[in-house]
Specification:
Length: 122
């Protein structure tokens, strides 16, 4: 099962780490407890929209950027999940997830059915 809170946390953690900032720095800026922010990043807590907004502000990130990255990851996870449930082995394809800035973030290899060729295949 794909958990949205886990995807949100992963994106927030990567953004914080890209900036070279600690949990303490971001939690202080967002006025969120260190423990709670840690739980959000690990996908253990469901963050409210108000909390996500405060964290995004602290990370100098637009909420739409966060949601776009989460949406892209969700689409890839759904493809992977769908491919895993197929009885016919699907070809392996490598996708590059590109951030809003246009910088490739990471390469993800998944088994994807042929119909998904239109999804930014690398």
């Amino acid at each position: 099962m794909i958990l949205l809170r886990r995807l949100l946390g992963d994106v927030l953690r990567r953004q914080r780490q890209r900036q070279g900032r600690t949990l303490r720095e971001v939690s202080s800026s967002a006025r969120v407890s260190l423990g709670y922010l840690s739980e959000v990043e690990r996908g253990q807590k469901e963050a409210s929209s108000e909390l996500l907004s405060a964290i995004c502000d602290a990370l100098e990130m637009r909420m739409s950027e966060l949601m776009r990255e989460v949406s892209d990851e969700l689409a890839l996870a759904e493809l992977a999940q769908s491919a895993a449930s197929d009885t016919i082995p699907a070809p392996v394809r490598t996708f590059t997830v590109t951030s809003v800035t246009g910088i490739p973030e990471e390469r993800v290899t998944i088994k994807a059915p042929k119909e998904t060729v239109g999804v930014a295949a690398a």
